[in-house]
Sequence to fold (312 residues):
Amino acid sequence: MYKNYSISICLCTYNGKKFISELLNSIFRQTLLPDEIIVCDDNSSDNTLEIIYSQAILHKNIKWKIFRNTENKGWKINFHSAISKAEGDLIFLCDQDDIWDENKIKVMASYWNEDILVLTCNVTQFFPNKKIPVIRYSVNNTFDIDKIENKFDLLYCKRPGCSFCISNKIVTLYNSSWKHNFAHDRLLWMLAFLKGGLYKINYNGVLYRRHGDNASYINYQKFSKTKRRVYFENINLSREYIESILKTNDDNYINEKDLIHIKMLDKFLQLRKSLYKTHNIILIFLLILQLKYYYSFKDFIVDIINIFIFDF
Fold:
């Protein structure tokens, strides 16, 4: 049952005038309203902030913290800044163009327990130019809570940040592990997993809008040099996540079993990196022995295509 947690929403915006009102209205319709909304705007050139200020005046029952960057810093820095400013017991992460189910806050707060550090809900993907939404993950709300503990789920963040509710207990560790090029949701996912506090609820809480303007949107349907570089950079970035987490393991929260697995993941990423750099066919056979570490077999095939068709 619901406990009296204080609730924060971290909303990051950039030129979001087209959808921001729809998102805010879905928050104001919540059956359990937040205590505070932190807005970090990344120097929008449209009237996004004017819309937000006008809504803040109308909804004075909510504490508003509104910040505007003097220059564009990018969504990774912007979300990190917003999370660092949140004071609630539970912190909901929010994109500017989604639509929340009216019970999202109440449901996730009601099913919260003290073992949870990050709780993710299901999302429904939809595209503005398509009439039929694309359902992702579950269709039916059973409200089952499941711990995510399959060791192969560590490296791949399988829910978008807009589905996250995080405990303020993890923020200090997150801040000490974060680097300027780290995605907030991926780092939070990995930290919560390693501390045994990553959970998912079988509940569809967000209409997740997908379009070419999404910060994380990349069309992988076609191969190109650019996407090859994205894959290669993601390998390097994954290694940085692992190294950063290992460096902040001061309280030995990573158990020996997980530590061994992390080191195996690091070796897997080193192999992929070497393959991209050297085109050594022998490494392909070594990677075949480690297929279990790929998110899917398709990603292995993409590696092969990228390496032998495209060059830097």
